[in-house]
Amino acid sequence: MTVHDLPAVNATLNGLSAVFLTTGYAFIKRGNKTAHRNCMIAAVCTSAIFLACYLTYHIQVKTVTRFVDPAWFRPIYLLILLTHTVLAAAIVPLILVTLFRARKQQFEAHKKIARWTWPIWLYVSVTGVVIYLLLYQIYPQK
Fold first, then answer.
1. The domain containing residue 82 runs over which residues?
2. Number of structural domains found in the chain
């Protein structure tokens, strides 16, 4: 494996995070707190590994990938990228606060912030996969 394989690894990690988030949500709706906790911990771990791989890739590969072709799709891609990037930056403190409240067994406060954290985190995870697919699979940029 080389550093150039990391975008695919990152997309996989984002996809796994989305699966853990969705499964964890289903578990808590069914009242299975232990399975919910385990899925959320797995989502945090996959997201943390993603962040490490993402930073490694961008530190090692000094070029920036630009979406150029097709030109008609570029504004759509940039809108997805913009919302993904802004929410990815915002989600980190939300995740930390949500986890802290669960760890301290402040479950009412945990639920209040998790209502915001979960959908944003899921959006960031899913759009991470979408961005990878657009840049590397559907419209590979030269």
1. 3-138
2. 1
**Angstrom distance (rounded) from CA 136 to CA 93:** 30
pLDDT (tens, 9 = 90+) of the chain, 142 residues, equals: 899 999 999 999 999 999 999 999 999 999 999 999 999 999 999 999 999 999 999 999 988 888 999 999 999 999 999 999 999 999 999 999 999 999 999 999 999 999 999 999 999 999 999 999 999 999 998 7
- Burial (CB count within 10 angstroms: exposed 0-12, middle 13-18, buried 19+), residue 95: buried
Residue among 21, 24, 84 nearest 54 (CA): 84
Contact 6, 56 (CB under 8 A): yes
User: How far apart, in whole angstroms, are the C-alpha atoms of residue 14 and residue 43?
Assistant: 9
Q: Tokens at residue 18, please? A: 């989305």
Q: Who contacts 2 (Cβ-Cβ below 8 Å, separation ≥6)?
A: none
Query: Using CA atoms, how far apart are residues 132 and 126, in angstroms rounded to an integer?
Result: 10
Domain CATH number, residue 125: 1.20.120.80
Q: Does the model's pTM come out above 0.90?
A: yes
